[in-house]
Amino acid sequence: MGEVDPAFVLEPEHRPKLSITEAKSIPVIDLSPVVNSSGDGDTKAAAAVVREIGKACEEWGFFQVINHGIPLEKREKAFAASADFFAQSLEEKRKVKRDESLSCGYYDTELTKNVRDWKEVFDFQLQDPTIVYASPDPDDKKVIQWNNQWPQNPPHFREACEEYSREVEKLSFRLTELIALSLGLPAKRLNEHFNDQTSFLRLNHYPPCPFPELALGVGRHKDGGALTVVAEDQVGGLEVKRKSDGEWVRIKPTPNAYIINVGDTMQVWSNERYQSVEHRAMVNSEKERFSIPFFFHPAHYTVVKPLEELIDEQNPPKYKPFSWGKFLAHRKLTNYKKLNVENLQISQFRIQD
Ligand SMILES: O=C(O)CCC(=O)C(=O)O
Ligand SMILES: [Fe+2]
Questions:
Q1: Which atom of ligand 1 lies at the shortest distance from residue 289's CA?
Q2: Which CATH number covers residue 85?
Q3: 230 pocket-lining for ligand 1 (C-beta < 6 Å)
Q4: Domain-located, residue 221
């Protein structure tokens, strides 16, 4: 990755500014009142957490959480496994290469909006195997299985990844429950959609980049699922397109915190009360960066539509129902192929006002 390969170079209007605007006001929410409560905990403090989460989802689509209940040791093991894995030779890493039939594993040529990302990744699913639709064609009901692939090296890689993923999954259910409460719904209202979840965890490695003003680690995009729960190291690079003025602002890393963002599916469920916000990851010329996002995705058979409890005559549904599994199959295809079109967006299901 030494030369300026044009595959990585962004159109001038999408290139990052190297001067950083730090997002000082992105909410940091302390989850201890809900994590430590045994049911008879301080319900006043828990209600305040729910309100803070609702406000952050509305104003930012992004927030951070601390005192979230994930043991630091498990997080550190996952980061160590990730660093050890990516430090291996390309030949070793490519033994578990992801391709169109094997959706999980190692990959270093991902595209975001047809431009190559300056990164390498390792993906694995929470459910192994995960059932998905074979094609984006709406009439094709055929399903296939995606299986995880695990490398032989480093030796404790799989164990570290799986143990960590179970913790992030727990946190994701908890956050989904808090978000449901913030929408005035029963806590477990959304949980059933995740029984056969298509969630996956991704280890991201962004090597130092000699031309950080021309390329991005991950190009601007919105996450499609319900929620994303991101752990990052202390290097920093995640930028959010601030809702209030459209400015790209950098999230300052908070040690041991998680960065949470609302995805497109939550935007539709909430009938746009909460919106999925564009974000991107910058790279820099000196330091490598590691991050571990968890993408909390519903089951392939989920029909995503505004929740009935949130719509009435004053608030008619803003989206037509769509199939999560077909949306996913469509997205998957565009990750591998350079196309002349942008990939499928939920705006295609938007009902005009
Ligand atoms: O690396 C990060 O901080 C975020 C990456 C991201 O947004 C993604 O992979 O969807
Ligand atoms: Fe993302």
A1: 1
A2: 2.60.120.330
A3: yes
A4: yes
